[in-house]
Amino acid sequence: KATVSVLYWVWYRKAKTMLTERKRAALHNDILDYLKAVGYSESVRVFEEEMHTRALEQQGPSALERKYANVLRTAKLLSAAETLNKELEAQINEMQDPTSVKIAVAQRDYIPNKLLHTLEGHGFNKEITCIVFHPTQPAMYSSAEDGKIKIWDYETGQGMGSLIGHEGAVKCLAIDVAGARLASCSDDTDIRVFDTATESCIRRLQGHEHTVSHVEWVMPDCRFLASASRDGTIRMWDVQNSCVEKVFRNPGQEWIRSVKIIGKHVIGCGDDHLVKKWTFDGRNERIIGGHDHVIECLAAANQAACEVLKKVEDAKGKDEADDEMDNQDLSSVAAEYVASGGRDKIITIWNITNNTEVLKLVGHKDWVRGLSFHVNGKFLLSCSDDGLVKVWSLSDQRCLRTITVQEMSFVSCIGYHPAGRFLVSGSSDNKIKVYKCE
User: Fold this and answer.
1) Which of 12, 27, 128, 394 has the highest CB neighbour number within 10 Å of its CB?
2) What pLDDT was estimated at residue 115?
C-alpha cells in the first residue's frame, strides 16, 4: 500500500504540473488497467481509494452553488450597468434640456466641496470681473481687467479661445437663455453682443457716457438687454435693432453698479447706498432699502428661493403688503425677492413687492462682491474681498460652509452652474477656481 501511495504521489505531482486535467484522468485509468492486468488487486483497491480521496479534496462548489454565485455576479453587473446608464442619460438630458436637469437637481443640497481646477489665462494680476456658464454646453466665459473674454471647458480645465473687441476692462458678462448670444460691457462704454457659435461680435451698442458695469438679459425671450453705468443710468436696449428702448435715471447721477429685471420691475443699486426699483415705463421710482456703504452686487431669487423666503417672512410675522401691491396675490409673483451685498460687509435680502427687509446675513470681513442663489432655493452663495466664499442657509440665516479661496487676494466674483453641479470663483490675482458641488 505504501509503495502504491508513493508511486501515485510521484505520478500525481508530475501530472499536476505537466498535464491537463483530462490527460491526468486518462493517465490514472491507464495505471488502473495495468495494475488489473498484472493481478495486483490490492494495489488496485488502494489506488482507487487514493484517487477518490484526492478527488474529494479538489472538488469545487456544487452545481447549485456555482449557479447561485453566477446569479449574484450577474445581478451585480446589471446593477452597475443600470447606474452607468442613468448617469449617461442624465448627461445627455443636461445637454439637450438643462431646465429639466435643474428641476431634478433642485431637491439636492449640493454645495461646493472639491476643487477641480485652478485656471490662469488672463493678464498677470488682472482682476477677474465676471464668470458665466453656458446653459447647455460644458463651457464657461470669463472676463477681466485685461479687456479679454476667455472661453474654458470647465470639466477639463482647458482653454478654448478668446473673444476680442473691447478696448478697456471688461466688467460683466451675460448669456441668453439659449446660450446663443453673450453680452459684455466695458470701461470703454461699449456693450458688445457675441454669437457663441461663431465667436464673432454681431452687435455693438453705444450710448452710455461712462463705464458700463453690468448687463442683464430680459427673460424669457431675451429680446431686450438691460445695462447699468457709472453715468447714473440704466438703459433698456432693443438688441435686434441696436437701439435704446428706455432710460432709467438715478436722480443724483450716482454710479449704478448692478441691475436686475424681476417681474415687471427694474432693480438697481450702487454708490448712493440704495436699492431702487422702477416700473418698465420708467415711472414710479421707489426706494426698497439701503446699506451703510456702496452696494456692489445684486442677485434675484429664483422661484424655489422665493418659496423659502416667503416662509421666513411668515415665520417672522411680517405685515401684509402695502397699497402698492393693489391687493395682488403674493404667490402669483414669479420673483419677488432680491439680495444685495455691499462694502459694509453685509448681505441683505429684500421683498421688492412691499419694499421691506426680510433678513440680514453677517459674517464676511470685507466687501461683499458677488451673490448667487442656489438652484434648490435653500442656500445663498457669496464671495468677498476677505478671500472667502460662503454658503448661507436662508431658513436658518446662518453660514453652513466657508471656503478659503484666496489668502492673499480678493475674491471678486462667483459663477454658479445652471444645474448646480459646479461653482467657479474669480480673484484679483487673475486666478479662476472651479469647484465641484457634492
Assistant:
1) 128
2) 95
For 126, the enclosing helix (H) or strand (E) is: none
pLDDT tens figures, 150-209: 999 999 999 999 999 999 999 999 999 999 999 999 999 999 999 999 999 999 999 999
Spatial strand order in the sheet of 295-300: 295-300, 337-342, 346-351, 356-362
Contact call for residues 256 and 263 (beta carbons, < 8 A): no
Contacts of 7 by beta carbon, 8 Å cutoff, 6+ apart: none
CA distance 395 to 359: 10
Overall average pLDDT of the 418-428 stretch:
93
Q: What is the pLDDT of residue 131?
A: 97
Task: Provide the pLDDT for residue 334.
Answer: 43
Tell me if the bond preceding 61 is cis, omega within 30° of 0: no
CA distance 211 to 143: 15
Q: How far is CA 122 from CA 144, 150, 412, 426, in A?
A: 7, 8, 14, 11
For residues 229 and 207, the answer to whether their CB atoms sit within 8 Å is no
Residues in CB range of 23: below 8 A, 6 or more apart: 15
* Single pTM value for the model: 0.73
Q: How far is CA 167 from each of CA 95, 122, 145, 278, rounded to the nearest angstrom?
A: 34, 15, 10, 32
- How many angstroms separate the CA atoms of 60 and 177, rounded? 63
For residues 382, 247, 149, 111, the Cα torsion angle rounded to the nearest 10 degrees is 20
* Region class of 207: left (phi > 0), else alpha (psi between -120 and 50), else beta: left
Pair 296, 256: CB distance under 8 Å: no
As a whole number of angstroms, the distance between CA 332 and CA 371 comes to 25
CA distance 145 to 428: 9
CA 4 to chain centre: 76
